[in-house]
Specification:
2 domains, 11-stranded mixed beta sheet, binds magnesium ion, binds 2,5-dioxopentanoic acid
Length: 277
Amino acid sequence: MHLYQHQGKAIVKHQDVFYTSEQWAWDAFINRSGLHQHILSDLQGAEQNTDISEINEAGAPVISQEVWASGVTYLRSREARMQESKDAGGGDFYAKVYNAERPELFFKSAPYRVVGHQQPVRIRKDSKWNVPEPELTLFICSGGTIEGYTVGNDMSSRDIEGENPLYLPQAKSYDGAAALGPCLYVPESPIAEDTLIQLQITRGHSTVFQDEIRISRMKRKHQELVDYLTREMFFPSGVYLMTGTGIVPPDDFTLNVGDKVSITIEHIGTLTNTVSQ
Ligand code: DO4
Ligand code: MG
């Protein structure tokens, strides 16, 4: 089933039927262990709705949830970071974290900075080298279990990140740097290991970059990332965790204002954002 956030309430799409209820305040509705089963029982008393116009106005599937992110979980990300930071002597850090037991986890966004499907993502005015990072994003409830998935874009300023690894928070966190959507996918069992992630960047009428990768290429298990994230932190309304990128455009590529970034993850949907400044 797919959950859309509209004006703070959840709309459920299940077997091509939409369900709504005034009772379904987003934070409380999604923050339950065994969410899929809970929703199946909620649907019994809910109103069926054939008017799907509200879906087009759905916001990011976030009200009070922080967004965290994982780094260097795919070989391609390790290679790209080593290359961009080699002059700063930062390359070794990325090789080490790729192989270390402890993953790289960083704070990506407060909920009020997250943008949804069809809203603009931003590139920083003080950066000249920017890329989107298409990432499967986990939803973990306050009990610490993975309850759903969404599509994430971890917008990144590669020149700032490459200048010094200590600049990572500035390369990763700014207004419009985190996009999530278009919905929260809540399956009965964990998402398939061969799930495909696709990225397409269009400029005017041309595709200027596209690539794809399966989540089976990720070095770490989802549960491993979640265990580290929740070791010493409690998230009262649950939390989103981006799982890292396996797609990085070549080093001569940077996003331009006006580019359209579309990220599709099988079973979930497509998150599309236009780049602004
Ligand atoms: O270590 C820097 C950031 C890594 C990252 O965002 C990724 O691998 O997706
Ligand atoms: Mg990333």
